[in-house]
C-alpha cells in the first residue's frame, strides 16, 4: 500500500517538476539568453542560484582605463560580465592594465584629444564587437595654474583632453550605441567649489556636468541615459603626482582630510562601484544627474 502523503508534500512535488524542467532549459539553451534583456536574465537565473553580473553580455568603453579610477572601473566592468575596451596614451601602462584586468578586456593605445585616434578606436570596436552599450568618458588631466599664470599650453592641454576629448569620444561613439545605452562622464567636485589655482581645470569639469544635462535632452528620443560622476579627493596616481608637484604636499593632504566629513581620501574602487551603478539597469530611471562621490566634501 502506498504511504499517505499530506497536501503540502503533494504540492511541493508538483511545483518541483516545472522548476527542474526550467533548469534544463537554462543550461541547454544558453545561446538564447544574450537576446534577452540583462535585467530579465539576471532575475531569471537568480531563481536557480546562478546570479549573473550586472553588465553581463555588455560591451563597454573606458577611456583613460590604464590607471586610477579608469582602471578600477574597467576591472569592475569586467567582473560584472562586460567586455571592456580601455584606452591609454602610454603603451607600457596600457599593457600592464590589460594584464591586471586579466579577462574580457581589449587595450587600444590612443589619445582622446586626437580625433584620428578616436576614429581608429571606434573602427576597432565596430569590427570586433559591432556595438557599444556603455561609455565611461573618463580620460582627463589636471594642472595647477592661478589666474595670471595660465599659459596657452596649459589651457590647450587641459581643455583638449577634458572637453574636446570628452565631447568627441561621446559623439563618435553614437553610431555604435543602441537605444537605451548608458553614457557616464567623469566630472569633479571642483566644478562646485572655488578652489584656488584650479580655475582652468574646474571650468573643464563644469563643462562635463553641463554636457550631462544637455546631452540627456539631445538623446532622449533614443532613451540613452547620460550621467556625470563627480569624485572628490581620490587617492589615485594622478592626484599623487599633482600634490607632490608642490612644496606643501603633506600640509595639503592634512587640510583635505580635515575638510572631508568622512575624514579621508576616497579610493578608486569606491568610484568604480558608483560608475557600475550608473552603467547598469540598477539606474534605469536615472539620467541627467551629477552623482557626487566625495565623502561629503562638496555637500556641507
Brief characterization of the structure:
The chain is built from ten helices and seven strands. With 300 residues, the protein is an alpha/beta fold.
Could you explain how this protein is built, in words?
The chain is α/β, with parallel strands linked by helices. The protein has one domain (59-293): NAD(P)-binding Rossmann-like Domain (Rossmann fold, 3-Layer(aba) Sandwich), CATH 3.40.50. It has helices at 7-28, 38-46, 68-79, 91-101, 115-128, 152-173, 199-218, 237-244, 249-259, 268-279, and strands at residues 59-62, 83-88, 105-109, 134-137, 182-186, 225-231, 290-293. Strands 3-2-1-4-5-6-7 form a 7-stranded parallel beta sheet, with helices on both faces. Helix 6 (152-173) links the parallel strand 4 (134-137) and strand 5.
The helix-strand sequence is HHEHEHEHEHEHEHHHE
Low-confidence stretches: 17-36, 41-49
CATH second-level architecture: 3-Layer(aba) Sandwich
Describe the sheet with the most strands. 7 strands, parallel
Largest sheet, order of strands side by side? 3-2-1-4-5-6-7
Number of domains: 1
* Number of E-type strands: 7
Q: Beta-strand percentage?
A: 5-15%
- Overall SS class: alpha/beta
CATH class annotation: Alpha Beta
Q: What would you call the quaternary organization? A: single chain
Q: Choose one word for the global shape.
A: globular
The CATH superfamily name is: NAD(P)-binding Rossmann-like Domain
Helix content: 40-55%
Distance between the termini: 76 Å
Give the helix tally: 10
CATH fold-type name: Rossmann fold
Amino acid at each position: 500500500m502506498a504511504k499517505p502523503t499530506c497536501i503540502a508534500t503533494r504540492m511541493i512535488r508538483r511545483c518541483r517538476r516545472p522548476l527542474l524542467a526550467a533548469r534544463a532549459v537554462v543550461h541547454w539553451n544558453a545561446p538564447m539568453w544574450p537576446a534577452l534583456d540583462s535585467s530579465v536574465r539576471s532575475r531569471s537565473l537568480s531563481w536557480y542560484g546562478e546570479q549573473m553580473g550586472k553588465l553581463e553580455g555588455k560591451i563597454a568603453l573606458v577611456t583613460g582605463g590604464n590607471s586610477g579610477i579608469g582602471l578600477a572601473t574597467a576591472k569592475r566592468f569586467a567582473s560584472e560580465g562586460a567586455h571592456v575596451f580601455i584606452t591609454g596614451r602610454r603603451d607600457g601602462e596600457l599593457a600592464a592594465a590589460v594584464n591586471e584586468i586579466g579577462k574580457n578586456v581589449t587595450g587600444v593605445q590612443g589619445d582622446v584629444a586626437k580625433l584620428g585616434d578616436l576614429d581608429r578606436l571606434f573602427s576597432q570596436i565596430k569590427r570586433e564587437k559591432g556595438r557599444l552599450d556603455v561609455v565611461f568618458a573618463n580620460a582627463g588631466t589636471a594642472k595647477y595654474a592661478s589666474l595670471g599664470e595660465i599659459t596657452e599650453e596649459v589651457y590647450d592641454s587641459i581643455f583638449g583632453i577634458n572637453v574636446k576629448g570628452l565631447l568627441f569620444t561621446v559623439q563618435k561613439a553614437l553610431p555604435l550605441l543602441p537605444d537605451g545605452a548608458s553614457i557616464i562622464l567623469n566630472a569633479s567636485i571642483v566644478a562646485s567649489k572655488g578652489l584656488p589655482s584650479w580655475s582652468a581645470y574646474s571650468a573643464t569639469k563644469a563643462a562635463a556636468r553641463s554636457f550631462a544635462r544637455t546631452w540627456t535632452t539631445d538623446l532622449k528620443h533614443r532613451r540613452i541615459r547620460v550621467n556625470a560622476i563627480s569624485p572628490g579627493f581620490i587617492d589615485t596616481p594622478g592626484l599623487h603626482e599633482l600634490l607632490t608637484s608642490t612644496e606643501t604636499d603633506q600640509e595639503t593632504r592634512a587640510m583635505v582630510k580635515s575638510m572631508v566629513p568622512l575624514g579621508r581620501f576616497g579610493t578608486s574602487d569606491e568610484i568604480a562601484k558608483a560608475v557600475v551603478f550608473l552603467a547598469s539597469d540598477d539606474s534605469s530611471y536615472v539620467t541627467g544627474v551629477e552623482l557626487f562621490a566625495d565623502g561629503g566634501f562638496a555637500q556641507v
